[in-house]
Amino acid sequence: MILTEIDHVAIAVNDLEAAIAYYEQAFGATVTHREVVESDGVEEALLAVAESYVQLLTPTRPDSPVAKAIEKRGEGLHHIGYRVDDCAAALESMVAAGARAIDAAPRPGSRGTTVAFIHPKGSFGTLIELVQE
Ligand code: CO
């Protein structure tokens, strides 16, 4: 098994502050990390749940992939981040199993992680992110 943990569940929202306030009030959650990832056109807030995170994600510009996802499907579940020990090896293994890579090679993610995305087509409809800490 190459997955070691669910790293995060990413939820696309229009209003990051409103979503954070909702999670704080509804669950008593606290934000453990915030970051703007300009290359992806997103701002994220991470709320820790045990060893994993809920990642609230909002677009920073209209041409960001997350903006397009919200336009197409509305707010909601955007992708699942699976933690792996070796992102390159996990990506290779998934492609060998028939997955369609979005990233041909691992690249920098937020929090200093190394990540690679797998297309929902070929993965039963779920956008998958491999996350190496
Ligand atoms: Co993610």
What can you tell me about this protein's structure?
23% of the residues lie in helices and 41% in strands. It has 133 residues and is α+β, with helices and mostly antiparallel strands. Strand 6 and strand 7 form a beta hairpin. It has a single domain (3-132), classed as 2,3-Dihydroxybiphenyl 1,2-Dioxygenase, domain 1. The relative contact order is 0.20. The longest helix is centred in the first third of the chain and has 12 residues, at 16-27. The mean pLDDT is 96. It contains three helices and eight strands; from the N terminus they run E-H-E-E-E-H-E-H-E-E-E. Strands 2-3-4-1-5-8-7-6 form an eight-stranded mixed beta sheet. The chain has helices spanning 16-27, 65-73, 87-96; strands spanning 3-12, 31-37, 42-49, 52-59, 76-84, 107-108, 114-118, 128-132. It binds cobalt (II) ion (CO). The site of cobalt (II) ion (CO) has 6 residues, from strand 1 and strand 5.
Write the layout of secondary structure elements.
Blueprint: E1 3-12, H1 16-27, E2 31-37, E3 42-49, E4 52-59, H2 65-73, E5 76-84, H3 87-96, E6 107-108, E7 114-118, E8 128-132
Parallel strand pairs: 1-4, 5-8
Antiparallel strand pairs: 1-5, 2-3, 3-4, 6-7, 7-8
This protein binds cobalt (II) ion (CO).
